[in-house]
Design a protein that fits this description.
Blueprint: H1 4-15, H2 27-38, E1 50-51, H3 69-79, H4 87-94, E2 111-114, E3 120-123, E4 133-135, E5 146-150, E6 155-160, E7 168-173, E8 181-184, E9 190-197, E10 202-208, E11 217-223, E12 228-233, E13 238-241, E14 244-247, E15 258-264, E16 279-290
Parallel strand pairs: 2-8
Antiparallel strand pairs: 1-14, 3-16, 4-7, 5-6, 6-16, 7-15, 9-12, 9-16, 10-11, 10-15, 11-13, 13-14
Amino acid sequence: MVTFRSISCILALLLCLFDSSEALLTPSSAQQNMSRVGNRHHHPYIRTRHVTKTTPSNHISRGEGKRSHNQSSTSLAAADERKPWELFRFISQSSKFVTLPTLPFAVKNPVKRKVGVGETIWEAGNPNNFFNFAPLDDVVMGGASNSNIDNNTGTWSGKVTDANNGGFVGVRSTPFQGGSLSLDMSQCKGIEIRFRRGNGKRFKFVVRDSTEFNGICWTTSFDAKANGSVRIPFSSQVPTVFAKTVSGESFNVNEVVGLQFAYSKFEYDGKLNNNFDVGDFALQIVELKTY
């Protein structure tokens, strides 16, 4: 049965069709989309975002521009490949992150939870988690990469392809308690991630302080070595939109509403991720806790 919710979700998701949740697929399309964002300053009700071309200070530049011959040739071959766009997978993935407007008579004040140092935010298989992770891949931009996550084990795996000019996969937290909860992390310096596998590949971790589907991603890159952990300091996060760095923004540590992982062929401002390969990948997310 077609319901008001299903119709609203489809309409809302189709409006997101021309945007990405985390990264643009090509530098040229990134420039076009960021130009479109930049032109919004003429509208009195839309916040302006200014693009900066400076390289983030925490960007890992070792081996910059030196990708392997196999990786480059494989990527170029796949980039020319065209596959049918999976509309229903796009809707299935994106719908998990869309919160419909609340009717006026049913409005409830959102709950803000103060998070202390050393507190576990999410743990694989923990029935008390107040959110799950769900995949959000480059299908949102017409790509053909595909990933899945098992929230019981924390294993996120799949296959990345450059087909259709794609090249990224991701997992994003579902709305905290259905969108009724935000986190005040003002007592914390950052988030520590415990993980397994990863094969030394470079991933991104994103913290969100806005419920906008394509809002600012407070991003940190890290290399995932087997059975390791990494600390993500709030003070070193890079504000990005579509993997392009932006200026004039401040992280609202009192209003954390989303978390995200991404594995992308791009790092920032069109530069390639040197620890990336098309093909199969896997990362097991064990625990997220504050420090």
